[in-house]
Amino acid sequence: MNCLIIDDESAARAIVEQLCKNEGTLTVIDQFSNAIQAIKYLNQNDVDLIFLDIHMPDFTGFDLIQTLKNPPKVILTTSDAQFAIDAFEYECIVDYLVKPITLPRFQKAIEKAKNFTIKNTGQEKAVTSKGDAKDEESQLYINIDRRLIKIEIPSIYLVEAKGDYILIKTDSKNYTVHSTLKKIEEKLPKELFLKVHRSYIINLKRIIDIEDNSVLIAKDVVPVSRSNRSELMKRLNLL
Amino acid sequence: MKEQPNINYIKQLSGGDVEFEEKMLSILQKELPVEVETYLNTLKINNLQQTAEIVHKIKHKISILGLEKSYQFTVQYEKELLEGNKSKHEDFLKILNTMSDFLTK
Description:
Chain B: This is HPt domain-containing protein. The structure holds 2 protein chains of 2 kinds. By secondary structure, chain A is an alpha/beta fold. Helices cover 28% and strands 33% of the residues of chain A. Chain B has one domain (8-104). Chain B is elongated.
């Protein structure tokens, strides 16, 4: 089995690497000290098994699992026994190893991993916790200062282009992200959002009123370009 | 009697792999002084959330060095730090000194 080790502590990574070496059937293909680098790797490479630390700064092991559409098998490695109950919420989690990990306990976990099949694989979501696939589609992760922050899509009412950045306005907070309007447009559900101007995407459900060439969204007056006005009018439930 | 650090756990994992034993000791020798410094700094500015974070990291090293009672003490200390209580600091410092002495021998 091809394995990945994700842990912010180098001593912990070295121990798991040695345990894999002793076990004999595992190949450690890479190691990461933070979740964000690991997510990038996992989105581009096939991995059979992840040894994943729960307690990492900024982005926990559970956050990482929730970010992946089809997570591989996961063995959690942690110093905190109290998270074990949370682990049962995830279909992809094979076992839960409390540090310091001993060789017999590690071998037992690997045996479980070999016989373990993740339910709902393929096109379906492997993680069943924290809601269903529909819930995942209603969330968007944005990268700010190497942290992936989750936003509930329905809470977004306006996205504004600001040079190389976009300003995402939500009910609770505004976020400035290094991205383009085109990229976020692709991620937002078309039935809910519309680009009304080259610099603005609005949430149609949040329109308060429309006047000539502008629309009021929450407290923001947003210009509507002539070319987008007809599409906007088509999408409204006009009396 | 005070607990003494040992490398029994490292030896068990190594199965005679000297390179691994040296690697582990090298990581502990390199990282512990930095972590102790961070611990003292975060405590000094009373950022107990950050102090608990670094205690969490050190906790694993305590277990690697076979300090079972100290490990249990540290589990409780980390919890109390998150609740805003740093009263176990002096005793924790003794554990850090014992580990540092062992690693610099």
